Amino acid sequence: MRYLSSLYEKQIKEFLKEDALIIGEMVEDYGENEYQKVFKDLKTRFNIISLNGKVIYDSQKYQERLENHGERNEIKELKNKKEFFIIRESSTLNTLMAYYSKIDKNKSGQDIIIRVSQNYGEYNRELQNILYFEVIFFMALNFMIHFFYKNYLKRDMYRKLTRIKTFLESGQDKKEVYLGDDQWILQFWRVVKEWQEENIKNIERLAREKEVLEKIIDGVESAIILLDENFKFTVRNNNLLYLFEKSKYNCIQGIKYIEIIEVIKKAQNNQNDYREEIYIQDLKKYFLISIKKLNYNREYLVTIKDITISRESAEIQRKFISNISHELKTPLTNIKGYLIALKDAPESLRNNFLNTVERNIEKMENIILDFLNMTKAESLKILNIGPIGIEKLEKQLREEVDGIVNKKNGKLEFNFEILSKDNYIKIDYEKILMVLKNLIENGFIYNSSKIPEVIVNLYEMKNTYKFIIKDNGLGIEKNKIDKIFERFYRIDKARTSNVAGTGLGLSIVKEIIDNYKGEIKIVSRENKGTIFTITIPK
Ligand code: ADP
After folding, report:
1. How much of the chain exceeds pLDDT 90, in percent?
2. Is 61 a member of any domain?
3. In this structure, what DSSP letter does residue 293 have?
4. Spatial distance between the Cα atoms of 263 and 252, rounded to a whole number of angstroms
5. Which chain regions cross the lipid bilayer (predicted)?
6. pTM value?
7. Diameter of the chain by CA atoms?
8. In Å, what is the CA distance from 231 to each residue of 272, 332, 479, 515?
9. Is 448 part of a structural domain of the chain?
10. Is the minimum distance from the CB of 490 to ligand 1 under 6 angstroms?
11. Domain termination residue (choose one: 306, 336, 356)
12. Distances (CA, A) of 448 to 232, 412, 439, 455, 471
């Protein structure tokens, strides 16, 4: 407002100055007596005043009434200046007036003052009115334009959207012949469709890649977790789920065992990648945890592998070797003792001593043989299945157990009921031979019947072969049945004459059948006999 009023002031001053200039020109040309005539038609309000303040001419025609103007500011100030402008209250009109005064020369060359004035309040009001009117006018115009466009655009948008909707709902054929003026919809639709097809392809490709990746990480037998910098799971595969708390995705709450969390914490404080083997008491299992730092230590790739089996099998291997050495040591000590004694032994005992030495050597031989069979069964885990004639199997078995059958004066019988007419069965010959040989031998060895007898039955079923090996031997006590498959386990040595046994035979049998994913069942009655039923898949 202040800026505006200074603008008015400037403008009004310019108007008054222009008027004063015109009046000045006329005063120079005309004498005082001609003023009345000359200024008759001039609308401007002005006075011509002598330097001492006397009003010579007043455009309002009441100079006779006007007092001396010498004390008015606009006259007084002219003593030092050529022109003066002021806005003040008029004492005659009691209203705010703008005065412009300047010194000029009259016709006779004397200095006179020309004072032009205008009602400032009125002028100001007029200007203000114009301004208010303009502001209101433009605001209304603006509002109308805005309102019109808003409605127009809204309606236009709605119309277009409805068209798009009907277009999308129409079938493919209709779309292709869409109205001429709506060609843009068709174009738009084609672009969207292309873009959508591209997107679908990308999504499908990503989904496939994700699936492959998930399968790969699930295929790894370890648990794999990707932790972000806040130790939240970003990725986790579905292995070793028993280590994790369901639906908790923070490392601290999500992992059940403090032992694992501690390793992760250690890795966090470690500069490099970190590995540690741990034992979880609650699970009685060993784990290998490896932690790799990714993306400048912001993410951690944690793999947890259950290494219990390899740890245990290493332990079993160690025990096995120590057992073998122990088993070999006894006959070896015997042999050594008897050989020393033999040097000074009387003739009558020599034969006896030599027999004992021979028996112990036989025992050592058996241990080594079984040990070799055992390692063979363990190392040849992959089955070598092929067709084999049942006559060949029977012949081979009879040859291998011939010694014990004769020694015991026993009877060995085979009974094969197979589906194929050409008398072939499909088995891992070498391994099944080892199983049957062991079971048949045991049937005669642990047998004190008058006529020891072993019957081997084979039934071919739809998906399996069933071998039933039945003897009329000593039988096995119920509470020992589970133990006989343990390595080096032998039932009370005194009950049999077989001092050469190693306690490894049945554990070899079990190892082979386990590998075959088959099963062994035992039914036994003391002093009546034992039935081993072995089922293997085809
Ligand atoms: P080994 O015959 O060398 O002692 P095995 O592992 O073959 O070792 O057998 C373990 C034990 O199981 C034997 O010591 C024996 O007491 C018992 N056993 C095995 N087969 C029979 C059987 N058919 N009848 C009675 N006892 C048996």
Report:
1. 41
2. yes
3. E
4. 12
5. 130-149
6. 0.48
7. 192
8. 17, 61, 52, 42
9. yes
10. yes
11. 306
12. 69, 15, 16, 16, 11
270-301 residue pLDDT tens: 888 899 999 999 999 999 999 998 877 788 99
> Nearest C-alpha to atom 7 of ligand 1 is from which residue?
505
Predicted local distance difference test score (pLDDT) of residue 493: 54
Does the pLDDT value for residue 309 go beyond 70? yes
Q: 506 in ligand 1 pocket by Cβ < 6 Å?
A: yes
Burial class (CB in 10 A: 0-12, 13-18, 19+), 31: exposed
Question: Ligand 1, residues 506, 508, 525: which to mutate, most atoms within 8 A of Cβ?
Answer: 506
Residue 25's H or E segment, with its range, is helix 2-29
Of all protein residues, the one whose alpha carbon is nearest to atom 16 of ligand 1 is 491
Atom of ligand 1 nearest to the CA of 490: 14
Distance 271 CA to ligand 1 centre (A): 58
Return the amino acid letter for 148. F
In angstroms, what is the C-alpha Rg of the chain? Answer: 61
Q: CA–CA separation, 190 vs 163, rounded Å?
A: 16
Which pLDDT belongs to residue 179?
Answer: 55
Helix (H, G, I), strand (E, B) or coil at 70: coil
Q: Is 503 in the pocket of ligand 1 (CB under 6 A)?
A: yes
Domain boundary among 254, 277, 306: 306
Region of 527 on the Ramachandran plot (φ > 0 left; ψ -120 to 50 alpha; else beta): left
Q: Considering only CA atoms, which residue is closest to atom 21 of ligand 1?
A: 442
What contacts 422, CB < 8 A, 6 or more positions away? Answer: none
Beta bridge partners of 413: 455
- The residue among 387, 470, 474 whose CA lies nearest residue 432 is 387
Are 432 and 498 contained in the same domain? yes
CATH at residue 91: 3.30.450.20
Tokens 């119309």 found at: 159
Among 320, 370, 446, the mutation site with the greatest number of ligand 1 atoms within 8 A of its Cβ is 446
> Domain limits at 104?
2-119
Q: List the residue whose alpha carbon is closest to atom 4 of ligand 1.
A: 503
> Which 3 state secondary structure label does DSSP give 337?
helix
Check if the beta carbon of residue 304 is closer than 8 Å to that of residue 285: no
Task: Give how far Cα 339 sits from Cα of 325, 343, 360, Å.
Answer: 21, 7, 12
| Domain total in the chain | 4
Two structure tokens written together for 201: 């392809």
Ligand 1 centre distance from Cα of residue 453 (Å): 16
- Residues paired with residue 388 on neighbouring β-strands, in sequence order: 425
Distance 469 CA to ligand 1 centre (A): 14
Looking at residue 82, its pLDDT comes to 84
Give, using CA atoms, the residue closest to atom 19 of ligand 1.
442
339 occurs within a structural domain: no
CA nearest to 252, candidates 225, 277, 273: 225
Average pLDDT on 462-471 reads 96
Based on the fold, state whether residues 44 and 62 are members of the same structural domain. Answer: yes
DSSP summary character for residue 477: -
* Co-location of 11 and 75 in the same domain: yes
**Residue 265 and residue 202 share a domain:** no
CA of 503 to the centre of ligand 1 (A): 7
